[in-house]
Specification:
alpha+beta; five-stranded antiparallel β-sheet; 410 residues
Length: 410
């Protein structure tokens, strides 16, 4: 027997035993309303899942492109330095020859008595000039490499800009879907919301939460409710409206579901009581943390940015991507991209993969190196998730963890 049927049967039995009998039709209406809401949320959740999966893939692609751009930038800087040094060396060599009055090709020809003398003189001259010829060839090779790398950079930037435009189009449609989901769920009666969320909690307790490769819950109703919860939560944080968080059915239900699953869910809302301390709006540029910055300061800075919109390439209070968010909190000492961060940490021995020892404030790399966030403790991390969403608390259990950098060593 389905949970909803059990609940209806129990409610009916209690009502019949009561002196204040409710009409049987009321319970039938409740069951019909719940069934209709469940069916509608199934459709809504499926549509949201498609958009979220596509946007997550887009976010991974954008981060990957950003990493490629950073890599080519570094190659160009290196090649440019070699090219400049080679040009300088060649110019110096030619200047030295000129000031020393060394024989030129023209001198060899004009000073020769016959053709044999020309050939002989040129042979000797060319042998003496091998080093210079090699230097000229090396300089030309570096110049060509530099031009190729600059063309590659422009192609990657164009690819990133195209991907960003596509993400913006998808984001606009996704935001519309989320707003419609919010309006629908929030319009349901409290009793229907309660029964639906209790069903979800029971299902999570029994079966856990299944997600796809992008960390999106495969249960469409669960996905719809948790998406609404995140949207309601983000709006409340942005407006500093703590009462709406404390009384919000979707947020409360999602928090309970997360607890039931041992934090094993694709979304975890923060505890309602935590909202006031996290609700301050970001203002002004965040300074690079000093060496004495405490874990509490980092986490406070991280939480103060909750609700900041995802913007590819963004790293200020108006918008951030995942690595831009970490740079805004910690400073950019380990580079702009997730790949820069990993390479820097691996090179100086601060890279860790013993996740059981991870502490709040540590910077964690996930999703094959395409994503980064800040560990908040209790199985959650602060992160700028994907286009169409904002900085939020997410559950770590649906991310493919790669490694982490202790916050104290960032």
């Amino acid at each position: 027997m389905k949970l909803c049927t059990k609940l209806v049967t129990i409610a009916a039995t209690v009502a019949l035993a009561s002196t204040a009998l409710a009409p049987a039709a009321a319970f039938a209406d409740q069951a019909a309303d719940v069934a209709a809401a469940r069916a509608r949320l199934q459709e809504v959740g499926s549509a949201l899942s498609e958009s979220q999966t596509a946007l997550s893939q887009t976010g991974d692609s954008l981060e990957n492109i950003k990493g490629q751009i950073s890599q080519v930038d570094a190659q160009i800087a290196d090649t440019q330095a070699k090219y400049d040094a080679s040009k300088q060396k060649l110019a110096g060599s030619m200047h030295d020859d000129y000031t020393a009055g060394k024989t030129s090709v023209l001198d060899v020809i004009l000073g020769s008595r016959d053709l044999d003398d020309v050939v002989s003189g040129l042979y000797i001259f060319m042998k003496e000039s091998d080093a210079r010829i090699q230097q000229m060839q090396e300089t030309e090779k570096l110049k060509n490499e530099l031009n190729d790398q600059k063309a590659d950079l422009e192609a990657k930037r164009a690819k990133g800009e195209e991907a960003q435009r596509n993400a913006q189009a998808k984001t606009a449609e996704y935001k519309k879907q989320v707003a419609e989901a919010q309006a629908y769920f929030n319009s349901l009666s409290a009793s229907v919301q309660k029964q639906l969320t209790e069903e979800l909690q029971s299902d999570v307790e029994q079966n856990g939460v299944q997600t796809n490769d992008q960390g999106v819950a495969t249960n469409p109703v669960l996905n719809a409710v948790t998406t609404v919860a995140q949207a309601n939560y983000t709006q409340a944080v942005a407006s500093n409206n703590a009462s709406s968080i404390q009384n919000d059915a979707a947020v409360a239900a999602t928090t309970n579901i997360a607890k039931s699953a041992g934090q094993n869910t694709s979304f975890s809302a923060a505890e309602p009581s935590a909202a006031p301390s996290q609700a301050s709006s970001p203002s002004g540029a965040t300074k690079t943390p000093s060496a004495s910055t405490s874990t509490g300061d980092w986490l406070s800075r991280a939480s103060s940015l909750l609700g900041t919109p995802y913007v590819w390439g963004g790293s200020d209070n108006s918008g951030v991507d995942c690595s831009g968010y970490v740079n805004l909190v910690y400073g950019g000492s380990r580079g702009r991209t997730t790949y820069d961060m990993m390479a820097s940490s691996q090179s100086d021995g601060t890279w860790h993969t013993d996740f059981d020892n991870m502490q709040p404030g540590d910077v964690i790399i996930t999703s094959g190196g395409n994503h980064v966030g800040i560990y908040a403790g209790n199985g959650q991390m602060y992160n700028a998730t994907r286009p169409g969403e904002s900085v939020q608390l997410s559950d770590l259990s649906y991310f493919d963890k790669v490694g982490y950098i202790p916050g104290s060593q960032y």
